[in-house]
Amino acid sequence: MTDLTAARRTFFGDIGFWADRTALHEAASLGRALQLKQLIDSGECVNTVTVDNITPLHDACIQGQPNCARLLLNAGAQVDVRTIHGSTPLCNACAAGNMECAKMLLDHGAKVNPSLTALTASPLHEACIRGNADLVRLLITNGALLEAYDIHFGNPLHTACAKGHVDCAQVLLNAGAKVNATKFHETALHHAARVEMVDMIELLVQFGGKVYARDNQEQKPIDYTEPGSPSEVCFKFYERARLSSDCRYAPKSTAAFQNRFTVQDGHQGSGGRRSTGHMSPHQKLPSL
């Protein structure tokens, strides 16, 4: 037992002592700030971890308990400790969608881009899974990588689209996320097609999403929609509009074609406009 309770330093950081779940963990998880303060004042180690490397700070953040998180941080809780699965307290705060905890952790120096593992996603991925656009914006402002790649979800834009969070996708695209980046040749439009969200499809096409992109199964986004569904109708509309516009402007130079079709994007270029090579869904389309 002596070996198990010895302090140690590992890949996960200086994580204190092995233990089962302690009174500190329970108080932090349940938001019992007064009890937690009493335990801290009595000398309990705030960096005590369970056998799977969960600290009281992890518990406070995953349960969205900012008062308890503040007490732990002020008492010296380590901000970037990782669980056995690689999650940091910031990952947990983002998974919970708790802005207050996330801001607090960032103010205490939490890494916005912890190294990814096979078992954990980045804080930005977690925020996109949760669907908290304000949290996505906060992380990007603090330097979150827009193209961080998770082996399960792809990049954050793939994640937002797969989960059907249009607001998060909008924030990512406005910040410069690559609309046609691929995961096993799947683009964000493939993910949007699967969740049958017309608003998401329109947004992605507006930012230059390629309706003819094929994945590693040679499937286009439209191939993942239900026959006769609004999503299929939407894709057919854009495919026909694209063919019509390609034919109409074929004699013109590529530069002229790109200058003809643009979308508003306040984050792109000095003029606030970005060429897409596609027609915006809000532009007047050729007759079909």
TrEMBL record:
It comes from the Eukaryota. The gene is ASB13. Residues 260-288 are annotated as: Disordered. Transmembrane segments: none annotated. GO terms for biological process: positive regulation of protein catabolic process; protein ubiquitination. This is Ankyrin repeat and SOCS box protein 13. ANK repeats lie at residues 52-84, 85-113, 119-151, 152-184, 184-216. Pfam families: Ank_2.
